[in-house]
Predict the 3D structure of the following.
Amino acid sequence: MTYVTETLSNLIHQTAFFNLTWGNYLMIVVACIFLYLAIKKGFEPLLLVPIAFGMLLVNIYPDIMITPEEASNGVGGLLHYFYLLDEWSILPSLIFMGVGAMTDFGPLIANPKSFLMGAAAQLGIYVAYFLAIFMGFNGKAAAAISIIGGADGPTSIFLAGKLGQSALMGPIAVAAYSYMSLVPIIQPPIMKLCTTEKERKIKMEQLRPVSKLEKILFPIVITIVVCLILPTTAPLVGMLMLGNLFRESGVVKQLTETASNAMMYIVVIFLGTSVGASTSAEAFLNLDTLKIVALGLVAFAFGTFGGVMLGKLMCKMSGGKINPLIGSAGVSAVPMAARVSQKVGAEADPTNFLLMHAMGPNVAGVIGTAVAAGTFMAIFGV
């Protein structure tokens, strides 16, 4: 009888109920809210579902992220090995390859002025950097946090790993992906506040046709120019342009399909669950996390503001030929930010079609965020 009692007692005490803290339960609730937003509301489900589920798993069974050094048998937890691929910058770089393979750079090539709006939308990164230092973060931590303003999750993870900010990677990545999924909610009020109805109704001229040769040369030239100036951007910019070269060359359709479909989705599963699993209650529930979330929102708002305001300036200089709404797409949430530009423009005039025009600043924003990350790495000698 004693044996049975002890066995039952051991089984009961092995359940998670006896090992979790109030913080774990709170994070489980947060994970369920994220799952609701992803599944019911459709907020970036490809990213939010694996992130939320990783968050759920690590707060029920923390050992799923245990390191080999901490494990009694010398074998780490499943998601620990996924997470190493984040720290080693492998998954963010592969994500960029997939994005390149899926994206048409034609609108940016047809309208090179879009580069300026993509650059202006990086304002949020630098505003957040100085604010983060003011709030007590060291230079490297401030740089890693500030990249949230580019609305680019992979670059945020990449820079945090390169600058040795693994302790902050979870909150930074969750904030970045959360704001990416909330682009349709956060951006429109800022866009409307910064523009007049007349400006929102501006119809832009159709973009010129882009030749196949231009599309092939573009990723090669950008790689050479950007990586010569900032070699540290090679893992991101290089993979982005390689993916795009797969697409535009027309001679490696199998590689294009693999990079933009199977590989992309496999990487999203690994990256999403590992990022979510980095948000254990012990790592996530602290004052620094609240600061990071607040700084991310400020960065994102200023990024949108910077892009729109340069759009207004270009509108004035062009005699009203450029709709300033497309400047908001300069944050690098591809293609969601461009779709938001289209949506806000269509609300002012249902016959207005801005999507392709907005894709120029949108793609420029991806490159701009990678360049900003490379700049920080160069500053800190990484």
In short: The two ends are 64 Å apart (CA to CA). The first helix runs from residue 2 to 13. Residues 230 and 374 are 6 Å apart (CA to CA).
